Amino acid sequence: MMLVYYTALVFGYSLDSEKLTTTFWLKSYDQCIEAMIQLEDFYDYIADHVASDNRIFMWCDKSTVQSNEIIKPKIRPNSSLPPTSAHFRKAEMNGVTPE
Fold this sequence. Notes:
Low-confidence stretches: none
Shape: elongated
Distance between the termini: 40 Å
Helix content: 25-40%
Structural class: alpha+beta
Number of helices: 3
Mean pLDDT: 82
Radius of gyration: 28 Å
Largest sheet: 3 strands, antiparallel
Number of strands: 3
């Protein structure tokens, strides 16, 4: 499992010389990229009908805050390991002959 970080989708434009910026927080950079793809029509609408001076932007800004936990594998008992020569020697001492 990979480390995943919260990512901000930053959307900004100007309206009558007023600079406006909105930030949407998402769980991962991949989720942010997917959201940007879904927002293409919205972006185009704002660019064509609302934003003045063609000042419009949208990007993903990954944070340093982890959004997932790395799950470490459980420690397994030695019996789940494949047999080694030490296992065979122990079996022979107990009167069992390995095949």
